Amino acid sequence: MLIVQKYGGTSVGDLERIQNVANRVVKSADAGHQVVVVVSAMSGETNKLLGYAEHYSKEPARAEVDMLLSSGERVTSALLSIALNEMGYKARSMSGRRAGIVTDASHTKARIENIDPEPMRKALAAGNIVVVAGFQGVNEEGEVTTLGRGGSDLSAVAIAGALEADLCEIYTDVDGIYTTDPRIEPKAKKMEKISYDEMLELASLGAKVLQNRSVEMAKKLNVNLVTRSSFSDAEGTLITKEENIMEQPVVSGIALDRNQARISLSGVIDRPGIASDIFGKLAENNINIDMIIQTLGHDGKTDMDFTVPQNELNAAKRIVDTFKNDNEIEDASVDEDICKVSIVGVGMKSHTGVAAKAFATMAKENINIMMISTSEIKISMVIEEKYAELAVRSLHSAYKLDQ
Amino acid sequence: MLIVQKYGGTSVGDLERIQNVANRVVKSADAGHQVVVVVSAMSGETNKLLGYAEHYSKEPARAEVDMLLSSGERVTSALLSIALNEMGYKARSMSGRRAGIVTDASHTKARIENIDPEPMRKALAAGNIVVVAGFQGVNEEGEVTTLGRGGSDLSAVAIAGALEADLCEIYTDVDGIYTTDPRIEPKAKKMEKISYDEMLELASLGAKVLQNRSVEMAKKLNVNLVTRSSFSDAEGTLITKEENIMEQPVVSGIALDRNQARISLSGVIDRPGIASDIFGKLAENNINIDMIIQTLGHDGKTDMDFTVPQNELNAAKRIVDTFKNDNEIEDASVDEDICKVSIVGVGMKSHTGVAAKAFATMAKENINIMMISTSEIKISMVIEEKYAELAVRSLHSAYKLDQ
Predict the structure, then answer these.
(1) Do A15 and B85 touch (CB under 8 A)?
(2) Average pLDDT of B353-375?
(3) Pick the CATH number of A2-172 from 3.40.1160.10, 1.10.10.10, 3.40.50.720, 1.10.579.10
(4) A64, B82: Cβ pair inside 8 Å?
(5) pTM for the whole structure
(6) What does the alpha-carbon distance between residue B182 and residue A241 come to, in Å, rounded to a whole number?
(7) Which residue of A has its CA nearest to B100?
(8) Mean pLDDT over residues A178-192, rounded?
(9) Mean predicted lDDT score pLDDT of chain A
(10) In this predicted structure, what is the pLDDT of residue A347?
(11) Nearest-CA distance from A128 to chain B in Å?
(12) Where are the domains of chain B?
């Protein structure tokens, strides 16, 4: 097999941990696999360098930040290669450039545009373990760029796609994706497999493990992604296409998002285009609206409720207040004590009664559902935040995820 | 003017010092000059990274060492650019690769083969201060290489040559080249100008400031080299071609080399080829012979004395002992308590009596001259080490260097 393995900052956090990574890599090589390793900077290194830059400037030029930060991954890749050499294995470090990673021109948040896999293929064919500095590439001008948060994961997935690797293993300090947050429901089970789409909907469960950007890219490039722990031998969770999952459970997991706030507008003048005006203005200001419900009001007026991320609440409130000042809204109130519970599963497509069971479970626990939204594979409910854990545990049990 | 300025590890040793460098660079820019800055890694950084590598391996692969070490200069170049930007100046960092520096393939001690000055010229033409990561280039394969000790100086000189810069300023913690070591002779004067050839012969005076490799390259590329301090505003010493120095003193400086030892062979069988055998064997073992004298012996035997660097003495002794064991030499003795005093000056070419004055000065102080060697612009004498300071001071005064 050809395996791409990615090790994050904590996994290469010090010299001993880099040795641990070398030991793991060697196991895969000994098992007869070709291995490309993608590494992050040693943990703390990137922040140290950013701190240096901020010593001089609050807003350092982004091209310079890229030059600065890209050095961290280069160091790790060289050290890991040296450790592998010393264990008797042929290994070669490659910068993003050497690995053929070409990005667009947006410094500090570049998007990978193309990978020329030839240099990696050649090094693999010559019997090398290839160690690539993650998080970086070069733009068409040949300047170093970095990929932003989660960038090393993106490097790994893109490389796996370009090399048509059999597997892309993302090593972190978490051993996989669980049916729900184990800190809330200790009976949560690690999933063996999950589809890309479910993973995307379950973002809040996997956010610390995998960013949506990486999952989206894996889906697009058809890369079999495994998240597993670099500190244990436990099998991780395979994120793959739906067809690869034989026995699809109806519900795969329960996600909880506490980072939501609700804005309730009452007495909204019911003129054509008013919704478009309000939400257009919010969109212009880069505020992410999640759920929206509109209820019929009275006297030619309606009520509207919508949710926004908590850190965008103040900005959103200021915008709706301008409509209040223009007398197009009677009142705008906010509620931060809410949360969003979601039930995710591709099996929903072919099974009925999934939503009904969710509502019944909430009713049984006397939890009031404030808002509901559904997609093909997800049901989300906004409830009072104090019921968050109770809701998650009840749903986890109702859908028999603990079995 | 187009000026290349190089700042070494101590000059960029911490964030405040990098700010000082920025202040200096800006002065040159404000004076209307185009400036290319070449920077080293922050002091201690290279050793830290080497220490990391040695954690894994006593002999890490040299290509990996280059990948590792080249990150240090990249960090400094980005930080300096950010500092310059913040002061309101356009600046762009460039890795060795971006600056067009192509080297041969010898990792960790590569030689610069070619520089494509176009990217630097373009950035300068666009009004930028160009900040180049020193000590590094790329080989024809596109792999990062480093230039070995004094590598950033070489980068600066080569860049000055490629850009046909008016001046290449090497900033260190020393403010120039002195007529002799001021710790020995406090009356030593800083030279205003010195020729390349004199500088090469005076290596021991400038060794901590400039390596011969850089001076040789400056000579070859006809680069006006200035060494000066980054911690003061004092003018430095200009190292340039002989024709640029109008009033050439007969003697420019007195150099002292304490790192010499003498091996005396007595009763060497006087057969054809014996010298070639002995010195051939020493050369094979990379032992650097400096001075040799052969004196007529008796009974068909001769005596030979030669000097070697002290750290090569033991190896040299082992080799001559094999000749003793073969009965080709009667005895081999070593003397570490010697030193070499040299008088250097291009004016010697056209003045007579320079050597006679040296010998007379030694005689007046009752210093016995054990060996003598001369070149067109240098007279070297081996004397007992205890007379080192006395000899330097007497000669310094005899040639009126303190005036």
Answers:
(1) no
(2) 92
(3) 3.40.1160.10
(4) yes
(5) 0.85
(6) 76
(7) A142
(8) 93
(9) 93
(10) 85
(11) 13
(12) 2-172
